[in-house]
Amino acid sequence: MTMAKWTKQLDDTSEKSIRWYPQWNEREDMIIRCGGFPNVPLIGTQGAINYNPKLAPRQAGYPMVLPPSDEALTTFIIHDLGIQNMEYLKRIRQAWKSVVRKGPERGLVVAKPHLTTNPRLNADKESGLGQVRLGEPSKWKLVCTRMPKEDTERAHREEESWSQAITQEMYFREIEREQALAEKQELKTALAKSRRREAKAKDQLSQLWERARILKAKSAKNRLQREHLESQRQQRMVELILEHCRYLYENMKNLSLPPVRKGKLSASQPRYAMRSKTKAMENKVEALE
To answer: For the chain, what are the domain ranges?
Structure first.
């Protein structure tokens, strides 16, 4: 391609020709390095990932301007083989304390918000007449003329639309941030309530176990008392029976002996006495039962 064709093609280039990044997302500068890492390191639950600062605005259009805020960070636990990379993860965490930023020298990414990707518009805004640098990789330079009035008005309209888009995007991001903070606070509150309920349940369970232990001890004590009383009652019954047997045995011996003196009542008196003794013994046994 000849120089004339290159000049014509570059002269016809507008902001819609190449979109390295969204128009509303122009930045003064962005993070290009953290500590000794050539890429910007990020730690996630699936391991350590990073992004290349030169490719990020050209591919995704979301360059990183500030380190992650404390509200946006969440804790997570590394299991199994992830512990082997603990030193590397510590280096990543410390790297955010030494952030390196760059601005205009990034090339096509514009440093000033009021500049566009159109070389003719940028040239007229900066110096009216002069030379325009399209980026570090390319060394092409064009001699530009003053921008027409229509282009100036169009540039102002574009600036206003970009400003509105940036303001709207910042508003949406602020809403998302507030929602994230509210959700985080709700999770903290729910966690605190859950812990209180768990502690209360443990306390109630401990009280139930203590009551069960006391009831079990009382039951065992009552059982021992009943067994002791039953044993005493049976022993008393045995003693009464033995006493009654001895009494009957003595009476039987007395009945077998000849009478000492004659009379009507001599034979009936031991018999009546034995009956009364037997009746008293039966009453005692019934009372024990």
So the answer is: 26-104, 150-255
Q: Phi then psi for 208, rounded to 5 degrees?
A: -65, -40
- Torsion-angle region of 130 (φ positive above 0: left; ψ -120 to 50: alpha; else: beta): left
121-167 pLDDT, tens per residue?
Answer: 444 444 433 333 334 433 333 333 444 556 667 777 777 777 777 88
Among candidate residues 129, 150, 154, 149, the one with its CA nearest the CA of residue 141: 129
Residues 57-115 have pLDDT tens digits of 555 555 667 777 777 667 766 666 556 667 777 777 777 777 777 764 454 443 333 33
